[in-house]
User: Which sequence fits this backbone?
């Protein structure tokens, strides 16, 4: 194509420029959801335990047990998607600081070990089978569990952003904030279900509302960055409702104290479903953007590459040569 013409998005035989990621929407989407939920639940439980102590014991217990979802069901989903179990522990042969997958694998192992010890000590303490040191050991082990849990709740966004898939690569920091906020919202929602303390339930509702508001803002920021990069992959109705519906329900529950408990439960279920749908939606949209050469080849141009803030540059000359 000559320098004086502008590329119109066509390729030979309409062939994709990129090979779409071979992820299973259901398995990998579930793993990303469970990793975020578990990591954020451990983080919230640790913060509550350090701040409130025994006053929040029931909520802390629930958060510690929820953290086991990633080591159990989440790891199973990940291994099933890899098809060959050896692929998982082969990733543990080295530590590559420039690879989100390598760091994420080690974070999952560290989180699984620390969270399992914390949950087991919690269980032993609840049934009075151990000495006083059992509770103290749980409080000590929750610190590394919370630190690795915070990383686990966000690293999957870096894993997606590090690829050449336009929808993911253009997200930048906005996608990480979106995933982190969704993780906190889903964890607060899950911990709120079954909560008997009205005060603790209101606190968890407030955390969920704040997290959902941040997720909505990050979604708008990411969509703006992707529009600037020339990416036209519209979010599904489930993606939109996944944030706005639970946020609205949580806000209404705060305004109607008489029905707060029932509305909060419905809002929590909606937040959990929306968080899972958001992860699967991001994966689907990424694969769609990679399969469409009109998106992937335009995004690959220098004036569309995102900067370190995740915002595509807007050059004055958008002409393409040597395509």
Assistant:
């Amino acid at each position: 194509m000559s320098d004086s013409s502008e590329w119109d998005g066509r390729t030979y035989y309409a062939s994709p420029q990129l090979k779409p990621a071979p992820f299973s929407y259901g398995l990998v989407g579930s793993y990303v959801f469970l990793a975020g939920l578990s990591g954020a639940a451990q983080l919230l439980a640790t913060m509550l335990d350090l701040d409130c102590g025994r006053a929040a014991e029931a909520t802390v217990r629930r958060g510690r047990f929820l953290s086991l979802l990633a080591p159990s069901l989440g790891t199973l989903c990940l291994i099933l998607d890899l098809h060959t179990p050896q692929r998982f522990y082969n990733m543990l042969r080295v530590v590559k600081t420039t690879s989100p997958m390598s760091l994420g694998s080690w974070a999952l192992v560290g989180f699984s070990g620390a969270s399992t010890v914390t949950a087991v000590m919690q269980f032993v303490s609840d049934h009075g089978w151990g000495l006083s040191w059992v509770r103290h050991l749980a409080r000590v082990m929750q610190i590394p569990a919370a630190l690795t849990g915070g990383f686990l709740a966000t690293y999957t966004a870096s894993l997606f952003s590090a690829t050449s898939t336009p929808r993911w690569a253009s997200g930048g920091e906005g996608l990480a904030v979106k995933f982190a906020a969704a993780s906190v919202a889903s964890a607060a929602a899950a911990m709120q279900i079954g909560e008997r303390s009205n005060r603790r339930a209101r606190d968890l509702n407030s955390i969920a509302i704040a997290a959902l508001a941040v997720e909505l803002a990050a979604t708008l920021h990411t969509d703006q960055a992707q529009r600037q990069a020339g990416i036209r992959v519209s979010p599904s109705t489930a993606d939109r409702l996944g944030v706005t519906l639970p946020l609205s329900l949580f806000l209404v529950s705060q305004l109607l104290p008489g029905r707060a408990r029932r509305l909060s439960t419905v809002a929590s279920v909606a937040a959990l479903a929306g968080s899972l749908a958001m992860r699967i939606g991001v994966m689907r949209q990424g694969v769609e953007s990679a399969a469409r050469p009109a998106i992937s080849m335009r995004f690959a141009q220098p004036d569309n590459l995102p900067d370190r803030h995740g915002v595509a540059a807007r050059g004055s000359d958008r002409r393409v040569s040597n395509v």
Notes: Confidence is low (pLDDT under 50) at residues 313-323.
